[in-house]
Amino acid sequence: MADAEEVNLFSNSLSADFIYLFHLIPRMVRGEELRARIKDHFSFERQELSILIPAIFLTAFMFSFRDWGTTNFNFWAGLENYIVVAIIIGFSFFARFSWQKIYALKDGYRAEFKGWWLGILITLLLTLISKGNLPLVLIGGVVSSLMIHQRLGEFRYGFSYLDNAKISFQGIVANLFLALLFSIGLYFAPESYFFSKGLWLNWIMALCSALPLPQLDGLNIYFGSRPLYYSALAIVAIFGILLLTRTQLGLILAIFVTAISVIIGVLIEP
Predict the structure, then answer these.
(1) DSSP code at position 111
(2) Rounded CA separation 58/87 (Å)
């Protein structure tokens, strides 16, 4: 009788070990699998670029609205500032949405940018009314769709609103990370127009993305995970307060907040 119980205990333990092993195997090969998924599925479709590219130039106009001369209008100075801002915005937009696409592919989803023309028109109108004092970024967000073949074998392999929230949350994380990089540059070059605009733009984009409005990532986060949504709001607010102080202590604490956001992203992994 005792021998039978020992055999059953050994069998159950062995079964649990095999289950755990086969749960780890997909994670062990995830690096190779992710590279293959990026190679086969990572791209920006024509319909994405048809909205993203005009959004870059319109957003550049809004964020450089007050930079066409100091006291008098200066076309060439304004054009130079406009080009600089357009480069910053183009890099920031593609970096953010590229990271969301890669993160989505890791979990077996395809993330596609969906533009929001109404949001772009609203921000353009607000910029004109406020004379450039209220530039916002409401260009749209990502929509995730299930890649059935890539999701096979995953735990609860169907579409998950939590996964969708995580993909949207990574867009905010990407903007905060970019803002941190620009803030480091601004710390060493306090008079730099490039670093100042990069910091301001990425923080504004992270803040606007957290709004629970249609076509924005904030709505996906809100319905996917309320704790994650409130965490995102708190992180963006604290991050902005720390970075906009432009002090060494603020920069150090902002790095700490960025690390916290990354840890949150890890902790919500299944």
Answers:
(1) E
(2) 12
